[in-house]
Amino acid sequence: MSERTGWERGLSVTADGKGLVGHAGAVLLRRLADRVGLTDALAGVLPSGTASSWRDRATALVGLVVAIALGATNLLEAEHLQLHHGPLFGPAVSDSTLHRLLSTTDETRRAQIAKVRQRVRRHVWTLLHLRPGGFPYLTVAGRYLKGWIVLDMDATVITAASRKQGAAGTFKGTLGRADL
């Protein structure tokens, strides 16, 4: 893709209400995959093409994983979530392209992907061990969390059809409950 996406152009976030993107935490997941080399490593084991309409399969797979982390339960939902991130990541990958990607993922390719993930994971832990002071552990409520891995996640409102246990009115006026 010749046109750079929003985050490649250094798109800034402002509080003026313009250019807002839902699920902005997706940027962290995408950038992490790119910065630690996962996206590039996956490109080495996934099919590639030269046609102008060809979508990079490694980027499509990483985008699918991010969509799943955001709550997508099928390929169409993954496409719709990616549409929201168009200003950041470029055009969404269609559900049919994602289906073709997954249909080419046989046992051999899954083993290759697993090796890539293992290699990248080992690289990340090596970087953390080489970091002065080791892993950047956190201090929470005055307590130093040495030896912990902390995941800071936001809740997603799951709409409910009735007043079931735990359901409450949301800020948008629907019934739902916050799940992680």
Structure description:
This protein is mainly alpha-helical. It folds into two domains: 1-136, no CATH class; 140-180, no CATH class. The chain contains seven helices and five strands; from the N terminus they run αααααααβββββ. It has helices at residues 26-35, 38-43, 57-69, 75-84, 86-89, 95-103, 107-130; strands at residues 139-140, 143-144, 156-159, 168-169, 175-179. The strands form two sheets. Strands 3-5-4 form a three-stranded antiparallel beta sheet, with no helix packed on it. Strands 1-2 form a two-stranded antiparallel ribbon. β4 and β5 form a beta hairpin. α3 (57-69) crosses α4. The protein is globular, with a radius of gyration of 19 Å. The model has no long low-confidence stretch (mean pLDDT 76).
The beta-strand count equals 5
Derived structural class: mainly alpha
Order of helices and strands: HHHHHHHEEEEE
Mass-distribution shape: globular
Strand order in space, largest sheet:
3-5-4
Rg is 19 Å
Distance between the termini: 34 Å
Largest sheet: 3 strands, antiparallel
Number of helices: 7
Detail the poorly predicted runs: none
The fraction of residues in strands falls at: 5-15%
- Share in helix: 40-55%
Domains (count):
2
Mean pLDDT over the full residue set? 76
Task: Give the structure's gist in a few sentences.
The protein has seven helices and five strands. It is mainly α.
